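Private note to self, pasted from the team thread so I don't lose it. Backbone tokens:
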């Protein structure tokens, strides 16, 4: 399997009053990593919406928080495809401090659904995209 890594710097706005990353912001970091992963494969989400009439939405998330990230930390956020269905993709994602790959701060399984952009109903992932994604798992 191919693990995609994306760097994220923790800004003051990402933290609570104690300088610790607010729990929901890990999901934002993971969203950025998934978006950049798709971009690295040649899929821009605005182009998919415009040309293919599809969008992706989070269907489910299961997250575990192990250790805190803090203000000004440089993080690495991974995204790895673990399951690929006709209309969904599941990712295993981890957040670690850059250079400390042995310690996971947060881990999650995120399931993404492919939807028709107009009706917001489930729709099959386009064949060309499905083929590229299948090479990643």
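Design output:
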């Amino acid at each position: 399997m191919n693990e995609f890594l994306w760097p994220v710097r923790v800004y003051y706005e990402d933290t609570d009053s104690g300088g610790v990353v607010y729990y929901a912001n890990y999901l934002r970091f993971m969203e950025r990593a998934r978006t950049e992963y798709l971009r690295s494969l040649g899929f821009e989400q605005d182009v998919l919406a415009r040309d293919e009439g599809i969008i992706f939405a989070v269907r489910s998330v299961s997250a575990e928080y192990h250790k805190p990230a803090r203000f000004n930390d440089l993080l690495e956020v991974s995204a790895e495809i673990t399951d690929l269905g006709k209309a969904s993709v599941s990712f295993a994602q981890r957040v670690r401090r850059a250079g400390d790959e042995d310690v996971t701060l947060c881990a999650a399984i995120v399931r993404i659904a492919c939807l028709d952009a107009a009706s917001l109903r489930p729709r099959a992932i386009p064949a060309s995209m499905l083929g590229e994604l299948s090479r990643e798992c």
